[in-house]
Amino acid sequence: MKLLIKNARIIGNHDFPTDILIEDSTIKKIGMDLKVSAEKILNAKGKLVTPGLIDVHVHLREPGFEYKETIATGTAAAARGGFTTICAMPNVNPAPDSVKKMQNIQRLISKSAKVKVKQYAPITEQLTSDRLTDQRALVNAGAFAFTNDGVGVQTAATMYLAMKEAAKNKVSIIAHTEDDSLLFDGGVMHEGKRNKELNLSGMSQLTESTQIARDVLLAEATGVHYHICHVSAKESVRVIRDAKKAGINVTAEVTPHHLLMSEEDILSDNSLFKMNPPLRSKADQEALLEGLLDGTIDMIATDHAPHSDEEKQGSMIGSPFGIIGSETAFPLLYTNLVKTRRVTLDQLVEWLTSKPAEIFNMDIGRLEVGAPADLACFDLQNEKVISKEMLHSKSSNTPFIGWKIYGDTYFTIVDGQVVYQEEN
């Protein structure tokens, strides 16, 4: 089947309307006013068309926690946000720490996913043990990379052995860095000034940065590609910057919420602001953007973490960590970073497409002839307000409800098929 996109604005050719011809699952032609026939025509109406966005950090909750999200609803939310490839974390029940469990998740993905899903496997059995999983067998069963996201690997020897094995298997280790020995009193938000004002227990930035410092040296010793999840602290940025200068193969991501908010935005004990790592100080927030701009941090990932309304009502105490992000990431970043001229549109698109594709060796993230026909279209002109009603996720746990945005998704295409289109 041929699909012709008319009147697109594309990166690198902002000033002229461009047409894109897709045949089956591949981009066949790009040019002005293409004279070709096609079974389906989509008019982009001058809106921005980019490569499909890539999110290396999402939680789909299935199997085990389908009341929060399912593969079907989570991938629908991703499509709603312009994401065409997402990487799903393994903290589900049961965790895919064996070939049989990994094969089961792959079957669920094949049956229900609306976008491309790459599945992580755990570093250790059941995510919290010190027994390494069989990496080679799990890779053969479809594992994308290895992570214990949600918990830090507490023992240096365990991480070292996992990294040695991953280097041998030419796969990446992805780390949620958190030293449990530095967590005191069941912390629920950043240990700074606001937690004291709200009389809530704090979480020091040292829980994150000290484990990163440990791990980058282990990565240097083993030669593995080591990727750090959701960096939140200025000390972490400094450690990563120094590691890169030393030639260590380390990469990192930052979330939209850590770029756009700080502890100062938490005005009350509101569990919608409870996330791990927590929103930190204004100085940390500024260091994250600086790190993104100078290449210390490589990409943006959402850490889309759905929870039920019941779980996220009331106090931070006793509620789970995490907020959703798939559907709001691009417009929030465009509105608050690009329109305010803190970053360029080209930079934003790169952090959400070509950078993660390059780092994780994925043949996507390009808008060029011969590339896979994974595309997203965004409306940069019309203002909207984020509301629960606009969300396709099963959950609505986000503090961004009510924020005004530009850049909402107009349509999303995966392998030449329209998987989301704004209702007229």
From TrEMBL:
It catalyses: (S)-dihydroorotate + H2O = N-carbamoyl-L-aspartate + H(+). One of its GO terms (biological process) is 'de novo' UMP biosynthetic process. The active site is at D303. Substrate binds at H59, L60, R61, N91, N276, H307, F321, G322. SUPFAM superfamilies: Composite domain of metallo-dependent hydrolases (SSF51338), Metallo-dependent hydrolases (SSF51556). Its EC number is 3.5.2.3. Pathway: Pyrimidine metabolism; UMP biosynthesis via de novo pathway; (S)-dihydroorotate from bicarbonate: step 3/3. CDD domains: DHOase_IIa. Keywords: Hydrolase, Metal-binding, Pyrimidine biosynthesis, Zinc. One of its GO terms (cellular component) is cytoplasm. Coiled coil: none annotated. It holds the Pfam family DHOase. Binds 2 Zn(2+) ions per subunit. InterPro entries: DHOase (IPR004722), DHOase/Allantoinase_Hydrolase (IPR050138), DHOase_cat (IPR024403), Dihydroorotase_CS (IPR002195), Metal-dep_hydrolase_composite (IPR011059), Metal_Hydrolase (IPR032466). Catalyzes the reversible cyclization of carbamoyl aspartate to dihydroorotate. NCBIfam families: PRK09357.1-2 (NF006837), pyrC_multi (TIGR00857). HAMAP family: PyrC_classI_B (MF_00220_B). Belongs to the metallo-dependent hydrolases superfamily. DHOase family. Class I DHOase subfamily. This is Dihydroorotase. It comes from Marinilactibacillus psychrotolerans 42ea. The lineage of its organism: Bacteria, Bacillati, Bacillota, Bacilli, Lactobacillales.
